[in-house]
Give the backbone structure.
Amino acid sequence: MLRGTLLTLAFLSMAALSVAGPITGEEAKRQAQVLDDLKSALKKESKAAVRFELIGKAMKGEVSPDLRNRLLDLAASENGPEIESFLTTQMAVDEDSGIRSQMATLLGKRGSEKSLAVLLHYAEKDKISLMVKGCIGGQSSARRSSIFAIAELAGRYPKIADEAAAKLRSLPVKEDPEVRDNLADARNQALYQITREEALIAPFFQKLKSKEATERVNGIVAFRFLKLSKAPIEVVETLKDADPSVRRWSALVLGEIGDPKTADVLLATANNAKEDVGVRCNAIDSIGRMKIPATAGPIEKLLMDADERVQTIAAIALYRITGKKVKQFPAGYNAD
């Protein structure tokens, strides 16, 4: 399984899912025209405030969440502090919780200290509403994303870190059983990003010891959201877990942490022909994302593996390490 697909499924699993219909050819043409018209208008305008206003107007009248996502990407590519006002305004009116979540994330990355109040509001009170991503739909909210955006903002502005941490500690995290977005865990993970208090992540280490595989998966997934640079030995050891689902997540999470000291154990996993192919593929992908030159040779050997899925992921990983595309590299795949 390709890593992007796995991450998408992991993200969407927090919502009650449904399947939306495919886009028609006529609708695809309409969306392309809207996008082209807006890009043309933006090229003619030099003032950032007006450019954001044009994008806002296009989003306001657009019924397609997928196109609004693409319009939001245009806004994200714009420079200037005006993006803070743009995002704050759009979050108040957009009905898609997935788009509001992306806006919250952008506020954390691009907003000023004043964004703290806005993000706290959405972390506590954002409504549960429909989220549509391609042909998948479900109920969700921007609360979880807003919690992590607060930690991002505190990292960018250390002088508000204490205030942000205090506000997060007092944040009520009422869970909705239909959404299951693990707000209590998210609060602790965001607090850990700000404070690095070990007590906040002790429960996640405990989950790794559970007798239930699903609980161990929850434990390993939690480490995705801590912004670690070094992989704890307890996380590395989950590569040996008896359950393949735990090992799959372990191989993926170790790559997201990106500790170069785990490259050898990931290579051993990748080369184990008896291992579950999903585990192997995630291990290979993680090695590729670390971009360690010394791993290029071992990865290149996997291009001759008996399993074509392993060959494909190895080709992608090799490209990320060396910039070289081989015949096994999937046509049209964006590895950048």
Residues 1-19 have pLDDT under 50 and may be disordered.
